Amino acid sequence: MTLSDDYLKYPKRGHGMDHDRYIWSQLHERPKVVWPNGARVALWVVTQLQWFPMDMKPAIPVPAAMARPYPDYWNYTLRDYGNRIGVFRIFKVLDKLGIRSSVAINAALAERYPYLVEQVNARDWELIANGLDMGHPHHGGMDRDEEAALIKGVLDRLRDLSGQKIRGWLSPIRSESMNTPDLAAAEGIEYLCDWANDDMPYAFETTSGSIHNMPHTMELDDQQILISLRHTEQEYVDQLKDQFDCLYEEAASRGGRVMAINLNPWVTGQAYRIKALEDALAYISSHDGVWSATGGEILDAFTAQT
Amino acid sequence: MLREPELYDYSPMADRPKITWPDGARVAFWVAPNIEYYELDPPLNPGRRAWPKPHPDVVPYSHRDYGNRAGFHRMMEAMAKYGVRGSVSLNVALCQHHPEIIQVCNELDWEFFSHGVYNTRYTYTMSEAQERAMMEDVIATIKDATGQDVAGWLAPALSYTTNTMELLAEYGIKYTCDLFHDDQPQPVNTKSGRLISVPYSLEMNDTVVLSMMGKSSRHYTDILKANFDQLYEEGAENGQVMCIPLHPFLIGQPHRIGNFAEVLDYITGHDKVWVTTGREIAEHYYEHHYDNVVASLAAKRGSRA
Question: What does pTM read for this prediction?
C-alpha cells in the first residue's frame, strides 16, 4: 500500500490547537487564581463508585473488566468489595481528617446500592455522573442519538435518586466520543473530568455553550499507580506528597492550584493500603494553605474570578 | 448470561450486625496452602488452556512440581513452628500421586478442603452431571484418604459454572472460598441447604502478589503485616477474617520462607487473634451468627421492596 500525497498536507498546521474545544494557553502565563481564605491548594478528592457487570462486553477495552471465563466471580467480587468494604475505610479517613469528596458514581451502581448515595448526601458531598456502568464506555464509534439517550438517562436517574443537581461528568475510563461534551452540556453538565491536560480548570467549548474541564488526575489515580504500574504503597504515598509539595510551592508565586486525588475503593480501600492513603492525606492536611472542596465548589471559586 | 452472581445481598460494612470470635478475638486468622497437582498433558477445556506453550511446557510444570518436592516441607515446618494448622486447598488426585504429603498434613491435624481433582481440570463448560461426578469424586476421595468430611470448597483454578454454588449447598458443603467481596463470612443465597462464603483473599494470595503483580518477597511481608494491622484495629468493633492463601512452589522457595515465617511470628504474637481453620470459622459462624445475619439481610430486603 502506498500513501496518498494528501498524507503530506497539513490543513490545521497553525498557531493554537488542531480543534476548537479549548484555546491554547500555558499554565504559567495565566492570571493568578485566589482560593477562599487565601488557600494555596484546593484539594479535590474524587472517590469512584463503579459497577463492573459480570456480563460486560464493552465496545472498547476497559481496565479491571471481567477477564476470566464466565462466570468470573474473581473479578466481579473483587470490584464489589470496594463498594461493600473499601469505601467505608476511605470515608472514615476522610471524615477523620475533615476532607470533603466528590463522588463519581455509575448510575447503575447508584440504583443498585442507594445506601451509598445516602452516605454521600449525609456528608453534603457532591455526586459526579460517571456514566451508566463500566460495561458502557463512551467511544468514537457510538451513534449520536444512542449516546444522547444514554447520557440523559444517566443524569435523570442520578438526579432523581440523589436530589442533587449533578454538575460534573466523568466518562467511564475517561473515554469520550466527539459528541460527549456537547451532549453532556446539553443536559446541564457544567464541567467535564476527562481531559488530562492541565492542573487548573479551563474553559471548554460545546454546542451548548462554554463549560469547563476540571483537572481530574490520571497520573495519580490509585488504580494507575498501584495496579497498572504496580508501584508499592509507599511509592504511591511518595507520589502524592511530591505532587502536593510542588503545587504548594508553585502556588506561592503563581496563584492557587488544584490537587486532585482519584480513589477507587477496591484498590485503596484494601485493608493493607488504607493507612498509606491516610498518611498522604494527613500530610497534605497538615499544611495551612489547603482548601478541601468538591469539584463544584472549586469551579465556582474559579469562575467567580475569570 | 447473568449481570451479577445472584449469590449474595448488598451488605455495607458500615451497616451490618456485629460478629464475634471465640475468647474475644478480633481476627480469625487462617492459612490455606494450595497443595496442587498440575498434569503435564491434560485434555483441553474449551474455557482455558492449561499451559501457554505446546506440550511439554517444562518450566511452568516443573516450577509447580517444586512445591511438592521441596517447598511443601519447608512451608509446613514454618507453620508448625508457630502453631499454625493449615487448611489445605487440595487437588484430590494428590491423594494418589503423593500420599506422603497427605499423611504429614493429617498427622498435624490440618483440614482438607476441595480444590477439585487436578488444577488442570477446569469446571468451565461442565454439564451438571459432570460437575456432580467431579464433586462426588472429591468428597469420596478426601474421606477415603483422610477420614475427613469435606467442609470447604475452592473451585479448581477458580473455574466455575453457574450451577457450582447450588450443587455445593446440595452436597452439604459448608463454605465456599470462591467469593472475594468481603472480610467477614457471608450467607450465600442458594435454593437448597445452607452455604456461606469464608474470606479467602486474592489480595493476600502469594500467586497474585508475587507472580501476577510481580512484588518482591519483602514487599509481600509488608502487605501481609499491614493487612493484619488494619483488620486487627477494625476487629475491635466487628470481628474480621484474614486468610493467607499459599502455594508451596512460591512461598516454599528458600529466598521467601524466612520472610513468611516472620509474618507468622508477627501475627501469632498478638493477643486477640484466633489462629484457626476454615472449617472452624464456618462452624462458629453457623452456630453464633448465621441466623442473625440472614434475618438482618431479609429485613433489609423487605424494607427495600
Answer: 0.95
